From TrEMBL:
Upper classification of the organism: Eukaryota, Metazoa, Cnidaria, Anthozoa, Hexacorallia
EC number(s) from the headed UniProt entry: 3.1.13.4
Main location: cytoplasm
Key words of the record: Cytoplasm, Exonuclease, Hydrolase, Metal-binding, Nuclease, Nucleus, RNA-binding, Transcription, Transcription regulation
Cellular location(s): Cytoplasm; Nucleus
Catalysed transformations (reactions): Exonucleolytic cleavage of poly(A) to 5'-AMP
PANTHER family cross-referenced by the UniProt entry: CCR4-NOT TRANSCRIPTION COMPLEX SUBUNIT (PTHR10797)
Protein name listed in UniProt: poly(A)-specific ribonuclease
Family of this protein: Belongs to the CAF1 family.
Record Pfam families: CAF1
Length: 126
């Protein structure tokens, strides 16, 4: 699954500059280049039966992987398919953007960060 570190790498490639030293500046840049993000790991917090990494989640969702595990194309396709299957099964094909859009299951897996800057709390509060 793509994570904050992957977004950091992409932003560094897109801008040909070093990443911002402050987290808030990083998220401002992230919002500029990726205005709408749905984080599968963050969505999983509302799907009680889903646990584990991408492979485990995709198996629970009965999705088939195309290509080898831990290869970018294969992982991206499986992540996208997992998102759409989760949206269908757990959200009735209608995800509430105010609750799920632009929320990242965060850095070091210890925080959830809302890119609007309004919602920053520990995972134990979810």
């Amino acid at each position: 699954m793509i994570c904050a570190y992957d977004f950091g790498y992409l932003i560094k490639l897109l801008t040909a500059q070093n990443l911002a030293s402050e987290e808030s500046d990083f998220f401002d840049m992230l919002k500029l280049y990726f205005p709408n993000i749905y984080d599968v790991k963050y969505l999983m917090k509302s799907c009680k039966s889903l646990k584990g990494g991408l492979q485990e989640v995709s198996e629970l969702l009965e999705l088939e992987r195309v290509g080898p595990q831990h290869q970018a194309g294969s992982d991206c396709l499986l992540t996208g398919n997992s998102f759409f299957k989760m949206r269908e099964i757990f959200f009735g094909d209608n995800i509430d953007d105010s609750k799920y859009c632009d929320h990242l299951f965060g850095l070091g897996n210890s925080f959830v960060y809302s890119m609007d800057g309004m919602d920053h709390h520990s995972i134990h509060e979810l």
